[in-house]
From TrEMBL:
<dbReference type="InterPro" id="IPR011698">
    <property type="entry name" value="GATase_3"/>
</dbReference>
<dbReference type="InterPro" id="IPR027417">
    <property type="entry name" value="P-loop_NTPase"/>
</dbReference>
<dbReference type="GO" id="GO:0042242">
    <property type="term" value="F:cobyrinic acid a,c-diamide synthase activity"/>
</dbReference>
<feature type="active site" description="Nucleophile">
    <location>
        <position position="346"/>
    </location>
</feature>
<feature type="signal peptide">
    <location>
        <begin position="1"/>
        <end position="20"/>
    </location>
</feature>
<comment type="similarity">
    <text>Belongs to the CobB/CobQ family. CobQ subfamily.</text>
</comment>
<dbReference type="GO" id="GO:0043802">
    <property type="term" value="F:hydrogenobyrinic acid a,c-diamide synthase (glutamine-hydrolysing) activity"/>
</dbReference>
<dbReference type="InterPro" id="IPR004484">
    <property type="entry name" value="CbiA/CobB_synth"/>
</dbReference>
<keyword id="KW-0067">ATP-binding</keyword>
<comment type="pathway">
    <text>Cofactor biosynthesis; adenosylcobalamin biosynthesis; cob(II)yrinate a,c-diamide from precorrin-2 (aerobic route): step 9/10.</text>
</comment>
<keyword id="KW-0547">Nucleotide-binding</keyword>
<dbReference type="InterPro" id="IPR002586">
    <property type="entry name" value="CobQ/CobB/MinD/ParA_Nub-bd_dom"/>
</dbReference>
<dbReference type="GO" id="GO:0009236">
    <property type="term" value="P:cobalamin biosynthetic process"/>
</dbReference>
<keyword id="KW-0169">Cobalamin biosynthesis</keyword>
<keyword id="KW-0732">Signal</keyword>
<dbReference type="Pfam" id="PF01656">
    <property type="entry name" value="CbiA"/>
</dbReference>
<keyword id="KW-0315">Glutamine amidotransferase</keyword>
Length: 451
């Protein structure tokens, strides 16, 4: 397919009727294909997702952000999206068409799927807040004439959202493609490309989602192949022309969560990778110095840090290795002993406990700073948004918005102060969350933004 160079307008959002439709692969393909054309393209992800943004970064070479229409106010969403666009343009230079950035937002789940009770926070809500046209990704593998149903339904249910067009995914033959295109044309919907089945481009998954980008054995070859497929089968010019400027309103601004200290040691490796880029950026913007360290490499947190942050991740997959990381565990205990704030979220909370039981039932000793034992052998999926009210001694005051997503459970718990009072997305009161012993604290909740 031949392409001409055109001026880009800023943003669009990829949505789908359901999870598993191929949004991630197509987002990666578009990011890489536009980057290969010399354009300043950047990705973002709708909702609470730590893994897809790392793939976005690998595809386009720029950090991807999270835009959460449940946890963030509309003005904050627009401010953060505009910041992402500004970051993409920074250092570009020149006034030519390629100097204008393009933000491609990957939606989560189905286009109208949000939090109960009213579905708030869906990809459609995000598109409306940003003024972003929606490109619908339709898995046409088991349909042809029905390909127009979902995008036409979204157009009818959310008429304030512009449906820019449809990408047909998992097309089996030219005849199949022609039938699906006719259905779209009959509904007045533009077809922006038809991607054939790409079995070689499947992404491996595990219990919390895709295998992390840094663990993909041939990541660069994978995203290069996705970009080549997008360039070959999608109408990149039409997709770029469909983008529209972000909405802007007076007072659009991001609410920043205060850093837990001025010098913050941040665990960062395959076991503790679930730190939101926007929070890290906000902490730096408020003057905090972030010092990364790797527990899996048996690195201790910086001895001069007045706070240690253990984000979530996959400690359950590395429990034996973490139990043997004496410098790491000793460094956590030393930080607690000198009065530093030691804060763990989800996987980080598990690492601060007495022990972590792996999938085979073997118990591995952890830092022993909180009286809790967690288990990946006794599993129960916990998933949902949380409104959090910090109790005395927590790193923050005031309401917080967050979420939980884990399979591990608490099998033993001793006496300690609770960290948060909590409700779910529907306002139902939950049991108080987390534990605190002095300046050591943690919970299964991931904090997203101030409430």
């Amino acid at each position: 397919m031949q392409h001409k160079t055109i001026a880009l307008l800023p943003t669009l959002l990829l949505a789908a009727p359901a999870s598993g439709s191929g949004k991630t692969l197509l987002t990666l393909g578009l990011l890489r294909a536009f980057r290969d054309r010399g354009l300043h393209v950047v990705g973002a992800k709708s909702g609470p997702d730590y893994i897809d943004p790392r793939f976005h970064q690998a595809a386009c070479g720029r950090a991807s952000s999270n835009l959460d229409a449940w946890a963030m106010a509309e003005g904050e969403l627009r401010a953060r999206a505009q910041g992402a666009l500004g970051g993409a343009l920074g250092g570009a230079g020149g006034d030519g068409p390629s100097a204008r950035p393009l933000l491609i937002v990957e939606g989560a789940m189905g286009a109208l799927d949000g939090a109960p009770p009213e579905g708030k926070g869906s990809a459609a809500d995000l598109a409306a807040a940003l003024g972003a046209p929606v490109v619908m990704v339709v898995d046409a593998g088991r349909m042809a004439g029905s390909a127009a149903l979902a995008p036409a339904g979204l157009r009818a249910l959310r008429p304030e959202i512009e449906i820019a067009g449809v990408i047909l995914n998992r097309i089996g033959s030219p005849r199949h493609e022609a039938a699906a295109r006719r259905a779209l044309e009959g509904a007045g919907l533009a077809c922006l490309g038809a991607m054939p089945r790409q079995e070689a481009l499947a992404l491996p998954s595990r219990h919390l989602g895709l295998v992390q980008a840094q663990e993909h054995p041939q990541l660069e070859a994978f995203v290069a192949a996705a970009g080549a497929a997008a360039a070959a089968h999608l109408d990149l010019d039409a997709i770029a022309q469909a983008a529209r400027p972000l909405r802007a309103e007076p007072g659009d601004a991001a609410a920043r969560l205060a850093p837990p200290g001025q010098r913050v040691a941040v665990a960062r490796d395959a076991a503790f990778a679930f730190a939101y880029p926007h929070l890290m950026a906000d902490w730096r913007a408020q003057g905090a110095e972030l010092v990364p360290f790797s527990p899996l490499a048996d690195e201790a947190p910086d001895a001069a840090a007045d706070a240690v942050y253990l984000p979530g991740g996959y400690p359950e997959l590395h429990a034996g290795r973490l139990a043997g990381a004496s410098a790491f565990l000793g460094g956590l205990r030393a930080a607690a002993a000198r009065g530093a704030t030691v804060y763990g979220e989800c996987g980080g909370f598990m690492a601060l406990g007495e022990a972590l039981v792996d999938a085979d039932g073997a118990a591995h000793p952890m830092a022993g700073l909180l009286p809790v034992t967690t288990s990946f052998a006794v599993r129960k999926m916990t998933l949902g948004y949380r409104r959090l009210a910090p109790r005395a001694g927590a790193p923050w005051a005031g309401a917080l918005n967050g979420h939980e997503f884990h399979y591990a459970t608490i099998v033993e718990e001793g006496p300690a102060e609770r960290l948060f009072d909590a409700t779910d997305a529907a306002g139902k009161a939950l049991a108080p969350m987390g534990l605190r012993v002095g300046r050591v604290m943690g919970s299964y909740a991931h904090v997203i933004a101030p409430g």
